[in-house]
Amino acid sequence: MNIPTIDLPRIVVIGAGFAGLQVAKKIDTNQYQLVLIDKNNYHTFQPLLYQVSSAGLEPDSIAYPIRKILHKKKNTFYRLTNVEHIDTEKSIIKTAIGDIFYDQLVIATGATNNFFGNDNIALHSLPMKSLTDALNLRSKILGNFEKALNTTDLERREELMNFVIVGAGPTGVELAGALAELKNKILPNDFPDLDLRVMKIHVIEAAPRVLAPMHENSSEKAFAALRKLGVHIWTETFVTDYKDNIVTTNGDQSFRTDTLIWAAGVKGDFPEGLNAAEIGRGHRIITDDFCKAKGVDNVYILGDAGLIQSERYPQGLPMLASVAMQQGVYLAKALNRLARNKKAVPFIYNDKGSMATIGRNKAVVELKKFRFQGFFAWLVWMFVHLMLLVGFRNRVVVFVNWMWNYFRYNNGLRLIVRPYKRPTKA
Amino acid sequence: MNIPTIDLPRIVVIGAGFAGLQVAKKIDTNQYQLVLIDKNNYHTFQPLLYQVSSAGLEPDSIAYPIRKILHKKKNTFYRLTNVEHIDTEKSIIKTAIGDIFYDQLVIATGATNNFFGNDNIALHSLPMKSLTDALNLRSKILGNFEKALNTTDLERREELMNFVIVGAGPTGVELAGALAELKNKILPNDFPDLDLRVMKIHVIEAAPRVLAPMHENSSEKAFAALRKLGVHIWTETFVTDYKDNIVTTNGDQSFRTDTLIWAAGVKGDFPEGLNAAEIGRGHRIITDDFCKAKGVDNVYILGDAGLIQSERYPQGLPMLASVAMQQGVYLAKALNRLARNKKAVPFIYNDKGSMATIGRNKAVVELKKFRFQGFFAWLVWMFVHLMLLVGFRNRVVVFVNWMWNYFRYNNGLRLIVRPYKRPTKA
């Protein structure tokens, strides 16, 4: 790889998500040369992907180019490529654009979809992990209504207008809320000659309740809010197959749908070659309290790809943006300390709480000491998400979009640009 | 096609460009049922496509959904589909979603690229006719700089950083100006470790001067402005082939480039089946002074797809947005008159002039009675384009983007979303 060699140790960071970006921003480049690698030239703000899917926000409002973020950092290099292999013996990573040597390697590659080995689901469901996924889902949803107008076959119309979301975590719940608002407030204007009562939104969740990691009270409020919006929720249910547009489950229910949205299982995603590393639950690389991979030298794993296993965190930490960001900041500081020969301190997670929104005016927020719901929670949810967005421009664009939507009930343009085509088996 | 049959004559309009949209907006739906068909669910403001290509504007700021435009029109139906065939004997059009009968047919399908039979150019050049084209070109341009960083082969770097534009009409000239601004003002911040002097922008034009249809004086000003921005212009030159990343011409010049941009020949684009119609210059359907196709009943051709041949316009009219818009308004009124049994009047084109911009602060404008250039022309260019955009939202978005760009020299985010892949021969 075409990176100048200078007289400083080189840190290579793979992945410009919440964790990797913090390392790149906070590392002391008087002490290190930093190389950041990502397969996209932008950072994606994943928590708002669902609003891109539901055509509420445009891609450019939740993505921010890595080069712009790193404009002013010296000794910092970004490269757009895919990492193919890590050679921990030689401290080299192999990429499509050549090899590169590292002194310290930071793997912050996040998570990918876990379809639990079901090829039909893997091929035909629509995931929600990337901007491309979100745009595909958007054009699928909008395209389905155009198609529904043109069929007189009622069964076909139903499968086009039924949406089945698997997983009732924040992504599933928030997307269900956004689809319900499309159905109730927005699509009736776009499709006056389509009977939108045919449109059904189903959420399937294996756990006994929605937003399972949150407090029971929050789950109940979210459940009630979704029900009120007309969303059908099937808990303690899991999908067994998806064939010929029929979703089958472990229970009696089956669902006819052209659109199965996968917001359920994820697993750690990282390049091959870490043979000496231990892999734990959720296909995540086990690390110690210092985010260092066990059994491998000079390799740190941050965010969803890693799983701390220590006395302090015997169960590890959840796969959340806040864990990833805090680990990124922690590791940058730890490496800066290391360069000054200061003693290492372990990572301690500061759990600030969690939240989810269920359509207009409604959210559930859980902070350390108390929890609340409703309109004020929704304001908090919006404020926190705006502040976490990268770039002043994007904050303004998202804020203006939200305000416009709030007062005009007409969010975004709903363009079908570069339509999604369902893959066929090769 | 699933359209209700009512007791009014049905007008079917194919194409929601400048012409088709005006017909749909202005037709009297107390007198007619209107069906509008387009293969995209949005109207594209083609004059600003080049700014999407150069990452100055996002797609959603120059496209507007057809359903939103027609929200309040009664007896008006839009369908997203491709027209496969026209049967003028039976007055039926065949589409992917079924057949539909028309009483009056309006063909406003515009133009497509004319590669003059060269398969290599057709396959490997990048056109600029649609939003998809513009996004492909954008990701190609940005991706090439990422690749250029990673090669030590100087010849390869040159071909990645050379851009050859064929055609010095408004599109070619405006894109060349925008690329020059990327080179001079924007990319140096994004790519501090890339020597941007390597980047070359060539414009190849068969005519003896740029902006050939405009006055000589405007051509000279545009030429001088492009030269000042560092653009290389080759007039009286035409491209003969594009193979192995080499553009060959009729002259001595050949150009090594990974990116050949086709802003040259276009030809009328319309569905098959108009066998009785006469086809004229530029593969356009010949019409009379009333925009009615010669030799066919009840079929009107508007905009780029049609070519008026009459005493008044023996040479026809140019392929311009203003012609298309005026024809759309004219035909709607003519059909409204027809419904009231009023006498038909011929179409008369009101030539308001033409204009082009060449980067920041510079444009050439030609009005009926006088012409001017420079900063004031640039303001006029911006004002006219803003006013022609569909939708208040898009006017605001484009205006804010332009102002931001003007004062901050940092237009847009330059995201590579869904990268372009060069096609290979099947």
From TrEMBL, chains A, B:
InterPro entries: FAD/NAD-bd_sf, FAD/NAD-binding_dom, NDH-2, NDH2-like_C. Residues 352-406 form the External alternative NADH-ubiquinone oxidoreductase-like C-terminal domain. Coiled coil: none annotated. The chain crosses the membrane at residues 375-392. Its EC number is 1.6.5.9. Residues 10-328 form the FAD/NAD(P)-binding domain. It catalyses: a quinone + NADH + H(+) = a quinol + NAD(+). Pfam families: NDH2_C, Pyr_redox_2. Belongs to the NADH dehydrogenase family. This is NADH:ubiquinone reductase (non-electrogenic). It comes from Dokdonia pacifica.
